[in-house]
Design goal:
The protein has helices at 16-36, 38-41, 50-76, 81-104, 112-131. By secondary structure, it is an all-alpha fold.
């Protein structure tokens, strides 16, 4: 019997489980970068005080936890993986909207490296939404 969480090879090259692991790796890497070097990783890092950089490290820890939950769910959930995919897409789109609010509100200076980095949450949310279609159940 075919696993419900797996997407047919004809439709897509990767299963939703693999997509969730890929989209979970980005926050893990970003969290590690924030913890190791918050002043250069955060968009307003050069303007933050030592307390702001310390809070930024908490943000890095939360990003790592967010990414690890992608991995844990993709490994242990089978039947309702598409629901978790949509939920994580909501998390990524929320991050993207807050990031956009920072640019539009003028809280963050417009620098190319940070603008390119702001595209990632939108892309990850889009990928998760596309790949989190409800699986077609075979009637038996």
């Amino acid at each position: 019997m075919e696993n419900v969480a797996e997407i047919d090879e004809e439709e897509m090259a990767f299963s939703l489980s693999t997509i969730m692991k890929i989209t979970g790796t980005i926050p893990i890497l970003l969290g590690l970068m924030i913890i190791l070097n918050p002043a250069n990783t955060l968009a307003a890092g050069s303007n933050l005080s030592s307390y702001g950089l310390h809070v930024g490290r908490y943000l890095g820890a939360l990003a790592i936890i967010f990414g690890l939950t992608h991995w844990l769910v993709s490994m242990y959930v089978e039947e309702n993986l598409h629901i978790f995919g949509r939920f994580f897409a909501l998390g990524h789109i929320t991050i993207a909207i807050l990031d956009s609010y920072g640019w539009i509100g003028g809280f963050v200076e417009m620098e190319m490296q940070y603008i390119i980095g702001s595209v990632f949450p939108f892309v990850l949310a889009f990928i998760l939404i596309i790949c989190s279609q409800a699986p077609k159940l075979d009637e038996e």
